[in-house]
Amino acid sequence: MLYFLYKILNINILNYITVRAGIAFFAAFFLTTFFMPRFIAWAKNKHANQPIYELAPQSHKAKNKTPTMGGIVFITATLLSSLLCANLTNTFVIGGILCLFGFSFIGFKDDYGKIAGHSNHAGMSPRKKFMYQIGLSFALSIILFLFANLSGEFFIPFYKYALFNLQFFAIFFWMLVITASSNSVNLTDGLDGLASIPSIFALVSLGIFVYLCGHSVFSDYLFLPKVVGVGELCVVIFALIGAILGFLWYNCYPAQVFMGDSGSLSVGAFIGYTGVVSKNEILLIIIGFVFVIETLSVILQVGSFKIRKKRIFLMAPIHHHFELKGWNENKIIVRFWIIALIANIIALITLKLR
Known about the structure:
By secondary structure, the protein is an all-alpha fold. It is built from 14 helices and two strands.
């Protein structure tokens, strides 16, 4: 809407992506902080709390009355702010909005099933949820390849040239990146605020890459892949950052609300989507390092138990391992935040070291 006001009324300041991204950030933050306490009160009244996994550490039993599905509020705030501030004719923006809405809807169906069935096993089956994620990721990849004309060039960190062009097969690669990213954030979302700050760090880093890749001068100077029109996606990125920050106000330890799958699946998928459009699919390993180690801990634990009949960790994902080692929950959360910050600083260093 603000972009079209610039077009109609010639308000030049609204032409700048940075201005509209800033407005979107504050709009999403205030919408989230305004509606979240009302959602929490409603959710408590309706007993909309997700059952605690029966094998979780005993300390989690005290959280069984904490409302879930907070992701609905901050994703809605992100979408409204994006509709207000972004250029809605931009294909990357349309794809980003579809990504947030679609994955949030998948998460909502899973959350609602668990709440209604009063069990973690009452939600969507893992196989069904995975197939929905694959299908939506495939659709988004098709949009990027056919309508956004995103190239299939494959880049790695610290090297300025594309190694090769995946061409049509890029669709399947992007599909895997988006789906994997969605699930990795979902696995990390097990402690109060644990997934929120690493997500914000990742989105800030990716926002910088997206803006630079969409800027003809900066992309040439830094030898970054030039992606025409992708800079507009910064409006959606910073709307999501503002919304997550508003959510963290109520999700920090001790949490008053959980984001649920309706939030974590959507945030993770959008991080993957942003990595794809900025040609940082491999750099996502560094940008989302906390999410990567959480996912690897689960893969190693399951693989070790199936092959050796022995566990590597006391419990997976790895944050539960440290809980059972006797670490205070808040200590685990802050230390993981520190690791995420360091990883993203390293990722940003790759801007110049090419």
